[in-house]
Amino acid sequence: MSLHPTLQPYADAWSHSVDAISELVTPLVEGEWNRRTPCPGWSVRDVVSHVIGLDCEMLGDPRPIHTLPRDLYHVRNEHQRYMEMQVDARRHHTAPEMTSELEYTIIRRNRQLRNESRDPGHLVRGPLGTEVTLERAMRNRAFDVWVHEQDLRAALGQPGNLDSPGALVVRDELLSALPKVVAEDARAPRSSAVVFDVSGPVEFLRTVRVDMGGRGTLETAPALGPAATITLDWETYVRLACGRVTADAVADRVKAEGDPQLIAAILHKFAVTL
């Protein structure tokens, strides 16, 4: 394989998750494609349509020429409109049409990855006419596909793969967002620290320290006398950070100690996906 070593973990994570999605949805009967998922506004069919659509864009396929309905309550900004286009264009596709297109897209993407020789810094098409590096694009796909695999598992009652390669990509991406959540969004006090203790299939202990300038940094060392300590399991962490649940809905699965106002502010701003 000619894939750059930096990109290999993202290719492996994408492949593992998209194959799992294919296994999950291939046996479904028509009615099961309409089940609601935790992803706001999207059914099983919609989630699979999104996965197909974005991988087609990675392949360089043109986006569908399609007009969105005006009554989609979950579409509130341009980014969401962009993502909805691939979904709404497939809303009336049958189960066989969905599974066959998914299978064909996976075959094409695997072929693309086998032949991929571009540098990680090579610029490729991103959402809304932007350009991103190939590394960022592949990391985004690995993140996105694993999160949507979990959406499908929740909708279909088939939990699993919480510690798969994609889960580790998601962990790193969500951790990279924590300093902003704590320091900028929740406005934690300067010269303070907030500890996150996460258990389960993916476990970690991280501290966000806020300096005198109000800038947050992520550390692996625990803090003495933190302003707040938030303890929760990995699945709950993901669901909160990806906007699948509110803090109130999972209050029984989150243990928090310290400044109650700061804790509430952090949990209120915890979702980092659009």
TrEMBL record:
User: What protein name is recorded for this chain?
Assistant: Maleylpyruvate isomerase family mycothiol-dependent enzyme
Domain Mycothiol-dependent maleylpyruvate isomerase metal-binding, which positions? 16-153
Q: Which residues are in the MDMPI C-terminal domain? A: 172-264
Q: Which NCBIfam families match?
A: maleylpyruvate isomerase family mycothiol-dependent enzyme
Q: Which organism does this sequence originate in?
A: Streptomyces graminofaciens
The record's annotation in Pfam families points to:
MDMPI_C, MDMPI_N
